[in-house]
Design brief:
With 237 residues, the chain is α/β, with parallel strands linked by helices. It contains 9 helices and 7 strands. It has a 7-stranded parallel sheet with strand order 3-2-1-4-5-6-7, sandwiched between helices. α1 (14-25) crosses α9 (208-219) and α3 (59-72) runs parallel beside α4.
Length: 237
């Protein structure tokens, strides 16, 4: 019997892509969701990664993804909820629309996928089965500049506790809360210097530290309902 795949939502770029590639290196079959076609997907497909388009901005899009996921596999070893959006706080009608989209991507999609794919995790036949939510440092600390984003990530962190209690002991449910893991394409050295100064360790470590944390959770047999802070000691500043 072949090993059950690990699902990573939002796995076409940055942290999600890095984790997908590293899981492949470690011999795990991988399924990813992606929002739009991009060249990086071809490299993942060449490595055997199954790529499923997904639109998490509506409930219909989420349910359509779940249907196609169930058509693709009859079991899952783990689900990693990495899909994320970054929308500004605005005024007027756009403010409500942005908040609703962040809610659907960060909370409704994980909520529905966790419920509807529960039997796929149960069917994997392995002693270790996991759900991992990628939250954010601001989930616990708030954000003056990104209120809606922080609130939706905090909701995902709370879902970690609820699903951990609901699915124990068969499935472990945990979260990783990163802060300033890697720079964006348009970030300059001045921005990087300010970012490094926010943490006690004074570095921007790159995506490898996220995979190390994910690997730790996937390999653990005695941890559930926990959020791992991955912030380089930012709370000490």
């Amino acid at each position: 019997m072949s090993a059950a795949p690990i699902l990573i939502t939002g796995g076409a770029q940055r942290l999600g892509r890095h984790c997908a590639e590293r899981l492949c290196d470690d011999g795990h079959p991988v399924i990813i969701s992606y929002r739009r076609e991009r060249p990086a997907l071809d490299a993942l497909r060449e490595r055997g990664v199954i790529t499923l388009p997904a639109d998490f901005s509506s409930e219909a899009g989420i349910r359509d993804f779940i249907t196609r996921l169930r058509d693709t596999t009859d079991a899952l070893r783990a689900i990693v909820h990495n899909a994320s959006d970054w929308l500004p706080d605005t005024l007027g009608e756009e403010a409500g629309a942005n908040f609703e989209q962040l809610f659907r991507v960060h909370m409704l999609a994980p909520y529905l996928i966790n419920l509807e794919a529960h039997d796929l995790l149960e069917a994997c036949g392995e002693p270790l089965r996991d759900i991992v939510h990628m939250t954010d440092y601001v989930a616990a600390h708030g954000s003056r500049k990104h209120l809606a984003y922080a609130a939706s990530k905090a909701g995902l962190e709370n879902l970690t506790l609820s699903f951990a209690a609901r699915y124990a002991p068969a499935i472990q449910v945990n979260a990783i809360a990163p802060a300033m893991i890697m720079l964006g394409e348009d970030d300059d050295e001045a921005y990087a210097e300010k970012a490094r100064a926010k943490s006690a360790l004074g570095t921007i470590p790159g995506p490898g530290v996220v995979y190390e944390s994910l690997r730790y959770l996937l390999d653990s047999r005695y941890m559930t309902g926990v959020t791992l802070p991955l912030d380089g000691g930012r709370h000490l500043r």
